[in-house]
Design brief:
The protein has 10 helices and 12 strands. By secondary structure, it is an alpha/beta fold. It has 2 domains: 8-24 and 276-377, Alpha-Beta Complex (Aspartate Aminotransferase, domain 1), CATH 3.90.1150; 27-272, Aspartate Aminotransferase, domain 2. GO terms for molecular function: alanine-glyoxylate transaminase activity; L-serine-pyruvate transaminase activity; O-phospho-L-serine:2-oxoglutarate aminotransferase activity; pyridoxal phosphate binding.
């Protein structure tokens, strides 16, 4: 116990500021309760669940204003499973990867260890900024993250010049960016994410928005498997063509967590009712600005991402002065019901990391900054 008692009047109404899993709204929990008699505990291949998945896919199509031919595809395993799906189904020979944090690095490592692919070309920089892949000969996929969850860095999403002419796909890890950052889906071929960030659900599911080119690529690679000279193995669980076929039937290959589908479908409906992607990104920008402005004016805190153009409006990272222990601050906040503002463990910095996804109230974000000041003054 820290023995620091923050006055009740200062506390945020909701103390959840995690970077994933994130805050779940009470209305989502009510949706779970309403789903109990006819959805939870029933077959995912029957009409009620298929209607739920259809509503989710339709809602995401509206939310992201999908171009003609793009499809919403989903499957089990989370975004980390989709890294392996990329290796098995979308990279034909060689990929180029932007690496600027833990999660961008993990995708590059997956590609590097795939025995049927060449080593990826890595474009890397230290955490705290981003490095996008550049045009590279013989590359058929360009990969990077819209938002690096580990560092609070947001990167542009636009095709590498010349990549269309070489028939290369643009694959964007959007796990903590989707729904919190503006995006033109037409600039991507796979914009993939998990639902436990802006979409306020639980993990264990991946969602990918695929272009016609990505779908064609997956089908072409699948057709080549088993032919003489082919060394590629695509486990059924990682088959993107199977996921596409099942998604078109509004189901998943394997049994999904129905609660996750209920939570996500309710959140997507809520976001669309509020004004869609434009509303969600403006709200996140407002919350993020509160923290960045506070940190820039603070005597003991400063934004970790120094370039304003690279600062995320989904996950905000703030460095603390060496005289202020992040662990002491975290303990005091948790004792007062404010949780999950710890830095990414592998980054190893004296830092706070604050999720400001659409479900988080900007007023609660402002209250959080005042609570941090209150704690630091008393440490």
């Amino acid at each position: 116990m820290s023995n620091i008692q923050i006055p009740q009047s200062m506390l945020p109404e909701d103390g959840r500021f995690g970077s994933g899993p994130t805050k779940i709204r009470p209305a989502q929990m009510q949706a779970l309760n309403d789903a109990f008699p006819h959805l939870l505990g029933t077959s995912h291949r029957q009409t009620p669940v298929k209607q739920l998945v259809a509503s989710l896919r339709s809602g995401l199509s509206e939310f992201f204003s999908l171009p003609d031919g793009y499809e919403v595809v989903l499957g089990n395993g989370g975004a980390s499973a989709f890294w392996e799906i990329i290796c098995a189904n979308l990279v034909t020979r060689k990929a180029a990867c932007g690496v600027y944090g833990s999660f961008t690095k993990k995708l590059a490592q997956s590609i590097q260890t795939a025995p049927f692919l060449e080593d990826p070309v890595i474009y890397a920089c230290d955490p705290g900024n981003y490095k996008l892949p550049e045009y590279t000969e013989h590359v058929d996929c360009y990969c990077w993250a819209h938002n690096e969850t580990s560092t609070g860095v947001a990167a542009p999403v636009e095709r590498v010049p010349g990549s269309t002419e070489q028939n290369a796909l643009t694959l964007i890890d959007a796990t903590s960016g989707a729904g919190a950052l503006p995006v033109d889906i037409a600039q991507t071929d796979a914009y993939y994410f998990s639902p436990q960030k802006a979409f306020g659900a639980e993990g264990g599911l991946w969602v990918a928005i695929l272009s016609p080119a990505a779908i064609d690529r997956a089908e072409h690679i699948q057709q080549g498997v088993g032919l003489a000279g082919s060394t590629r193995w695509i486990p059924p669980f990682l088959s993107l063509t199977s996921a596409i076929e099942n998604s078109r039937k509004n189901q998943t290959l394997n049994t999904p967590a129905l609660a996750t589908l209920v939570l996500m479908e309710n959140q997507v409906r809520y976001l669309n009712e509020q004004g869609g992607l434009q509303w969600a990104t403006a709200r996140c920008q407002r919350s993020a600005s509160i923290i960045y402005d506070w940190a820039e004016q603070s005597d003991y805190a400063s934004p970790f991402v120094t370039d304003p153009k690279a600062r995320s409006q989904a996950v905000v990272t703030v460095d603390l002065d060496a005289s202020v222990s992040d662990q002491a601050v975290l303990a005091a906040l948790r004792d007062n019901g404010i949780v999950d503002v710890n830095s990414y463990r592998k980054l190893g910095r004296n830092q706070l990391r604050i999720g400001v996804f659409p479900s988080v109230e900007p007023d609660d974000v402002r209250a959080l900054t005042k609570c941090i000041d209150y704690v630091v003054e008393r440490l």
